[in-house]
Structure formats: C-alpha cells, structure tokens
Amino acid sequence: xxxxxxxxxxxxRALADVPRTEGPDDVPVPRRYEHTHMPTEGPGATGAPVDxxxxxxxxxxxxxxRADADGLPTLLCRLLAERGSTEVxxxxxxxxxxxxxADPVRIHDRAASTPDELDTVDSVVTGCAxxxxxxxxxxxxxxxxxxxxxxxLIPDHHVCVVRVPGQVVASVPEALERLDPSxxxxxxxxxxxxxxxxxxxxxxxxxxxxxxxxxLTE
Amino acid sequence: MSGRxxxxxxxxxxxxxxxxxxxxxxxxxxxxxGTIRAKRAxxxxxxxxxxxxxxxxxxxxxxxxxxxxHYLEQLEEAVTAAGGTVHWAADAAEANRIVTELVRATGxxxxxxxxxxxxxxxxLNAALEKAGIRAYxxxxxxxxxxxxxxxxxxxxxxxxxxxxxxxxxVFRGRMSRWGRPAPEGLTDxxxxxAEAARLHLREKFLRAKVGVSGxxxxxxxxxxxxxxxxxxxxxxxxxxxxxxxxxxxxxxxVPTWRDLEVFLQLLPRSSTAERMNPYTSMWTGTTxxxxxxxxxxxxxxxxxxxxxxALADTVGRQALRCIRCSACLNVCPVYERAGGHAYGSxxxxxxxxxxxxxxxxxxxxxxASLPYASSLCGACYEVCPVAIDIPxxxxxxxxxxxxxxxxxxxxxxxxxxxARGHAAERAAMRAARWALDHPGALRAGQRLAARTRRxxxxxxxxxxxxxxxxxxxxxxxxxxxxxxxxxxxxDRAEGDRR
Lengths: 218, 498
Ligand code: SF4
Hints:
Chain A: Pfam families: LUD_dom. Chain A is α/β, with parallel strands linked by helices.
C-alpha cells in the first residue's frame, strides 16, 4: 500500500464519528466578522483608506511620500540620489516616465541573471498590485510593473509606487478578493525586521532595510 | 552539529526543576513573555470583531478536520495541476527519507531552511546530516540555536532563552565553522548582531540551489502555500533556490482562498502582536520557465507522523486546529517558569502539553508527564485564536494516562493500560506536584483567567474519579466558548467594545 493510501486510510478511519451523510459544507462556518474595520461612508465614517494606509506604513517604519503624475519623476530621482544609488533594478513593465528624471543606470532582471549579480544593485523601483490600509501592507503579484519576487528582495532599498486611491483597499478580506492566487504573491508590511534578540526590534535582516512608499495620486 | 534532538529528555518535572533554578533563563523568559503578552493584548483590542474572527477560525479548522481526506485530495490535485509534486509521509522516518532523496537527486549537498516546526519535529537536519547534506537554518533565532548547538525553546522566538551577550559569544565563537565569520569586534548590540547574521547568511542564500520550508497554510481549493515571517529569510529560501521542498503537516490545509482572510488577521496579532507581519509569501506550484519566478521544481511532503492518531480522538482532535501562534506559551505561568526545553519536543508550552502526547503517545515518562505540566489556569484557552480548549484536553489526557483506555497508535486502535504504579504515573505525579508547588505560577495564571467561571467539577467524573479522589483537581475555567462568545457579543451590543 502506498503511503498516500496509508495516510488517507488513517484519516478516514479517524473520522468514523463523522456521519456519512455530512458533507464539508454542512459544517457551519459563522462569518460574522467585519468585512472591513473602517467604514468610509455613513455616520461611522473614519476617513479615507489612503490616510490610514500612510499612518500604518509610517507606524511600521516605512517612509511615505505623496506625489502626483507631474511630481513623480523628480521625486523618484531625488529618492535615488539621496540614497546614493548608482544602479536601480527596473521591472520590465515599469512605466518609463516614472524614472524619466532619474540618473542611475537601469538594470533589467533577466531570467539568466544570478542572485549574485543582483546583489550589487543598490535600489529597486516597482509598482504594486494592491495596498491594505488597515494593516499598512503592500502586495506584489509579479505583474510586469513589479517583476520577479527576487528583485524586491535582494537590493537594500525598495521604492514602491502605489496608485491612490485605485490600488488601496481597507482590509485584508478586500485585498484577497482582488488578488489572483495563481500568481506568486508577496505581502510586505514595513521593512524586514526581527525581534529575536531580547525582543528588541531590529530593522532589516534579509529583505530591504529601507522601504519607501510613494502614494501616487491618479 | 545540528544533530541535537529531544530524544532522551528527562520527564517534565526534572527538566523544569533545573530550568527553574536557572535564574538567568527565568529572567529572560519572564521579560520576553511579559512583553509579548502586553503587546498582543493591545493588537487584539484593536479589532472589535476578534471574537467573531476567532469563532470563524475555529469553525474553518473544524470543517477542515472533519473532512480532511476530502481537502487533502483536493489540495493534491491543485498542487499537481500547478506543476508541483506531492509526496505523502506516514511518519518522520519516511518524510526524512523523501526529503533526503529529493535533495540527492539535485546533486547538492547543502540546503537553506526556513524555520519550520514540522522539520524540527521529525529531526530533518540530523537525518540530512547523516546523508552528508548540510542544512543551514536561516531564521535569526534558529541560526543562534544551530550555531550554539542548542534546542529551540519557543515556537516564535526559539532563542528566547539566550540574552544578547550569549548570542554575541555564540556568533564570535561559532560562525567561522559554518561559513563567513563574525565581524571583528562584534558587540552585543542587537543591530550589530543582526547585521552579522545578514552577512553570514547572505552568502548561503545567494548560492543555495535547494530550499526547505514548512508552511503556515495550504489552500485546498487553489493549491496555494503560505509562509508568514518577519525577516525575509523565508522569501530568500522560497524564491532564490531552483528546488523547493516544503514539509507540511496534513492539518495545515484550509478549504478556500477566502479562508485566509480569517487566519491572516488572527495569526500576526496573536503571535508577534502586529497588525501584519513584515512578509508573507504565497505561491502556487511553479511558474513556467519563460516567466520563471522562483523555484522550477516544487515538492510538497504531506506529513502525518501521529496527526491522524490525534484526529481519531474526538476530544483531542481540536489540538490540530493550532496555527502555532505561540500566544498560549506567552501567557502560561508554567512555561514562564519551566522554559521551553522542559517540554521535550518541538512544541513547548500548553500546546505542546496536549499535542506531543497525542502525536507520540504516552508510553515514555516524559510524554506521560506532559499533561500534568499545567496549573489548569485557563489563560491559554482565553488567548488561543482558534479557541482550543487546552485545559479540557489536558484533563482528558491526564485521565487517559491514569486510567488507560482506547487510543489510536499509528492508525491502529489499541487499549493502553493504566499507568498506576508505573514509572509514567510517578513522573506524571511529580509534574503535577511541580506545577502546584509553584504558587507564584498559579497566581499569575489565575489573574489572567480572572474573567473565567468555575464550571468544572473539582473531581473528575467517571473513570477519572479514582485518580482524582485523593488529589484535588485545580479549577478549570470552563465557560464554554459559545457562552463566552455570546457574552462578549452582548457586551458589544450594549456599546462596550472591550
Ligand atoms: S494552541 Fe492556540 S494559542 Fe497555542 S500556539 Fe496553537 S493556536 Fe496559538
């Protein structure tokens, strides 16, 4: 007997108490929790998700900027210059105008690039798939303006552009509704951190130690 | 070097007694658990619908467990359709064999690992070592534990028993044996220590061809695996290698994509007291080589290793709901005094006290003593995000140790004999006495459980009576979850949200 049969057989015998007529959906799952914790309309309205997103990002030590389409290229140019970056990783589908004013050399992530090659690049600029206000989270799904997962992982400086209000949702349930599970997803809430040493929080162990989020008004 | 296991550990009371005498260990633990406890309460209080999320979390897990065969088959199909390969392992030895063979097939002799309770449980590192394969732990705490030739003592912060000076000494003394040495003049500043780990591990990440991980959740409907972490080492291991092998307990499956909305709210707040942990990675099978993003080969090893035995027990089954958040450890007065090592398994604290004896049986003195490693104060149940009634299961397992009864061992129904007069009972009694002899531990617990009511009898009914007749049973806060939930909801209706 294969181990598959062994394990499934054990599972079935273990569940002898479950009535044969009971289907999975017969087990009730009460979903009385809130779909979002921030009503944006009506008497209980608590402000715009974008403001809460900014607040929570800052609380988790990301650096937040705001720009409109006119101001974005100069802002990105400034952020890279302040960082002293001479090279910047660019996902294949990043709108070229975003970096129109930036000086650093564009490095493109090719399938053949080795992690070691990418390790020498200072910064990466990406878009995102969705951002969650209540938790201060940005989610990347590998779309052309975000690129492969590794490019937002190896450089020490990640600049992520969030289109607001279009890409901002209030809550985790709203975010999952928008995301496609078949894509590789990375949820990022603040820079990499650890509390493993006497529980004191230290930024940056392996992922980017600096996360800058640009809220781009559409 | 990574060969230490929990085998041959003394029974709980002996290990706990030596830990209790270690003043530094106790200080570290008290500080750590106290800090997390307070932060967790704040993070939970932010969500007015916590009780509803908790109810949903428990119900989703119950639905999964009652129909586990259905969901496992669905998961297998989805993972396979997405280009992954699914393997089934009935026990630890088989899982280790499968992983070893998969690594061998790549021709590699090194793997990078993300912290995983399941691989700790099966002793994978030691098994790989025997096969000439070196497994590098990449989580900062796991690195500290591995370099120090030590064992983890906490689910979430495995090196919680070490303070910064000790960590510096471990890095200075041991890093060079494993790869890049610690920087000259390394101090005990946490930021410097983290930087040393970053440099030491980066060289391993960049060259690694094989990654080994666990997973927090597996979605049956989509075949998606989810790893929740803080440092980014998980992302490194899940993204950079060419081959990824994930070893995951069969109870980690959840039915639908939507179900993640419950657990991704419950888990970070319960474990690290954050609204959301820094990184969560989700992947579904492999991506084709054109768009290659991440490993080209993905293997999922589904691990039983005693889980179906726990599943067969209608009372103990609820332990399989556990999402390994570690909240129960941080509120446990016994854990705070005894430390994680005393529990003698990968699962310390209250969850370990009910899970380990079910996964491994109660034939050893250690495992038989675990259900007694508790003052039954009930704080663990109060904080558990999936509402596992740990005190109920503890009392139930005590009865089984004392009275014997029907159990399932490796899939076979058997009757175990009562432990009365047996070494196991003596170990169990010592553990009970140890827990009860620490009034400080009891008081702390009772304060936390102040809201709970005493509904549980002071004497066990039925066959347990003989055992409890001569021993007073501490009160169990046994307000049913439903009552508790209804009460908190009614409070809310009156406008009091706390
Ligand atoms: S038993 Fe509950 S509180 Fe303890 S680790 Fe598991 S989920 Fe968390």
